Amino acid sequence: MSKTIAEMRADFQHLRRWRKSVEQAQSYTFKAVITVIATGLIGAIWLGIKVVLGR
After folding, report:
1. pTM exceeds cut of 0.70
2. Which of 43, 40, 45 is closest to 53 using CA atoms?
3. What is the DSSP string of 8-49?
4. Burial 19-45 (b: 16+ CB within 10 A, else e)
5. What is the pLDDT along the chain (55 residues), one digit of tens a residue?
6. What residues have CB less than 8 Å from 11, skipping those under 6 apart?
């Protein structure tokens, strides 16, 4: 059973869209992880400053 050229082209377009959506998800995940790490560091620094100042 062989596929027509139109069916194969549709399959490739589907794969291309899927790959693009996966790449976007990875980008969003990376940004979220960086944001969480940065927020945690800033919070830790702030707590350290508060302790040093004794407040």
Report:
1. no
2. 45
3. HHHHHHHHHHHHHHHHHHHHHHHHHHHHHHHHHHHHHHHHHH
4. eeeeeeeeeeeeeeeeeeeeeeeeeee
5. 678 999 999 999 999 999 999 999 999 999 999 999 999 999 999 999 999 998 6
6. 3
